[in-house]
Amino acid sequence: MNIEEAKKIPITDYLHSLGYSPAKQQGANLWYKSPLREEHEASFKVNTEREQWYDFGAGKGGNIIALAQELYCSDHLPYLLNRIAEQAQHVRPVSFSFRQQRSAPSFQHLEVRDLTHPALLRYLQGRGIDLTLAKRECRELRFTHDGKPYFAIGFPNVAGGYEVRNSFFKGCIAPKDITHIRQQGEPREKCLVFEGFMDYLSFLTLRTKNCPAMPNLDRQDYVILNSTANVQKAIDVLGQYERIHCLLDNDGAGFRTTQAITAEYSYRVRDFSHNYREYSDLNDYLCGRKQEQKNGQNPVLRQKKGRGI
């Protein structure tokens, strides 16, 4: 995807694919609660004629590429175009009726149940995830979206929303927020930070495979960003920990997010992304999707001394 192709994607459709819907319309302007930060009143404007956005609370704006810079915490253009292209397959033309929207939100008739659907379990198996762990951490969602029935994996956040995934759909049920998993009993000194819940599930799977007798999954707390745009929300809750281990993606957004956390908490932060530096993220490491897969090796089965996940 090049710059001109990216600019042809309507910003409103792109935001809708990520789970964001406008709160109101004023002429050619659609107003949202900002996808870049937490707010109670909509102050994020998209002009559908000029295909420009402006966040009045942050004092920033621009085209879809400028939006991607803020969403993915990067100014590296090839990376941004790649992220837009990845999301573009989930973008569909959408229209908004605000008279109906008050009684008929984008996601309707939501049912939350135990994760059992065979298609969703096959999807997780294809990503290398231990199904017992996935059933414990995730939920199965049934809902209608734009009048059509769907089922998907739901991963809850602290605000009552869900990250939503299946083989064909990637988005969220608002509100968008981090997930903070705190263990029972005495407060933990260590917290592990992940970008997405698939990486979190990958860590649990790797730890269980590498240390089946004592995986010690409850010796630390966990923060899942659910988007690098949520880094400030994570920073707000990480202050209570003496040790903060970042296992973020090996890309510009992951590096910048780790840097932002390190700038706040200094020596308390350790970057563990070097343990899977040949892979784009922890799930790719789990599945062996890059060089080592080409060489016929599986990194999951090769535990390195002193560097095991």
Q: Strand tally, please? A: 15
Strand sequence of the main sheet, in spatial order?
1-2-3-4-5
Could you state the order of secondary-structure elements as H and E? HHEEEEEHHHEHHEEEEEEHEHEHEHH
Radius of gyration: 20 Å
Mean of all residue-level pLDDT scores: 87
Strand content: 15-25%
Q: Give the N-terminus to C-terminus distance in angstroms.
A: 35 Å
Question: Mind describing the biggest β-sheet?
Answer: 5 strands, antiparallel
Total of helices: 12
- Going by helix content, strand content and strand pairing, the class is alpha+beta
Shape: globular
Helix content: 25-40%
Which runs of at least 5 residues are low in confidence (pLDDT < 50)?
Answer: 100-104, 291-307
Concise synopsis of the structure shown:
This protein is an alpha+beta fold and 309 residues long. Helices cover 32% and strands 22% of the residues. A five-stranded antiparallel beta sheet has the order 1-2-3-4-5, covered by helices on one side. Strands 6-7-8-9-10 form a five-stranded antiparallel beta sheet. Strands 11-13-12-14-15 form a five-stranded mixed beta sheet.
